[in-house]
Design brief:
The chain is α/β, with parallel strands linked by helices. The chain has a single domain, classed as 3-Layer(aba) Sandwich (Rossmann fold), CATH 3.40.50. It is built from four helices and eleven strands; from the N terminus they run βαββαβαβββββββα. It has a nine-stranded mixed sheet. Strand 1, helix 1 and strand 2 form a beta-alpha-beta unit.
């Protein structure tokens, strides 16, 4: 296994106003190497040298023009080429991690099979552990000591109108928004030789950070390690045990 600080993350930059500074803060903190991947560079993605592509939040489509009805797909020729390039990158062994709008795209690209419900709402939500032993949840899942009604503690995380997933394969559901494990929040799956992760909330944000402007100086929330784990796992790297 290569060490964590050798991981090369490509951060997708949809436009000059892309809100990626919080992700850069996290990657820098974890000692990960990163570089921007602009929309017009997606078609050369297999040759870009990155291990994993990170799709941040915002509102955009890869392989399509996102519309009000997600089941009515329109796409330009360039959209189709870019979507095909991302799928090829993953299926040939690359990693893909999508957060919020990026998570929509992981599913839209067909790399994880799920239905999506769009519902607005910003603020702290609770993550319920579904597969607590999955590498994505190392350092995230904690036993609910002394509780008889649950095995795992709920984990607070910032959500900003992220998707709610209904996965076709229950084995891809890693964490949910509800106790009954019906409202999917985090999905992960193999895709041929590669791996894909869809994260509905924003683990890179801090507790009171639901805005779009400056990066807060508050410490990262404990759930931030979910993003680190997702990047490592998607890139076929070892996820370290919690300290």
């Amino acid at each position: 296994m290569k060490s964590c600080n050798r991981l090369h993350v490509g951060i997708f930059v949809n436009d000059r106003n892309a809100n990626i500074l919080r992700f850069i803060r996290c990657l820098t903190f974890w000692g990960m190497r990163f570089s921007p991947v602009w929309r017009d560079e997606l078609e050369s993605l297999p040759a870009s040298g990155i291990d994993v592509l990170l799709l941040p939040g915002g509102w955009y489509g890869i392989g399509r023009v996102p519309g009000q009805d997600q089941y009515v797909v329109s796409a330009t020729a360039a959209d189709k080429r870019q979507g095909a390039a991302v799928r090829r990158f993953v299926r040939n062994g690359g990693g893909l991690v999508g957060v919020c709008a990026g998570a929509f795209n992981v599913v839209w690209l067909g790399l994880i099979d799920a239905d999506i419900s769009r519902t607005s709402g910003a603020g702290i939500h609770s993550l319920e552990m579904v597969q607590a032993s999955h590498p994505l949840l190392k350092g995230v899942a904690r036993r609910a000591v002394g509780r008889k009604d649950r095995r795992w503690q709920a984990v607070p995380v910032m959500r900003i109108s992220g998707p709610v997933f209904f996965p076709k394969d229950s084995q891809t559901l890693i964490a949910s928004y509800d106790w009954e494990q019906r409202l999917g929040a985090v999905l992960a799956a193999d895709a041929d030789r590669g791996r894909a992760v869809a994260v509905s909330p924003h683990p890179e944000r801090t507790e009171h950070d639901s805005g779009l402007c400056e990066v807060p100086l508050a410490p990262l929330m404990p759930v931030a390690v979910l993003l680190r784990n997702a990047l490592l796992w998607a890139a076929h790297r070892e996820v370290p045990a919690p300290k």
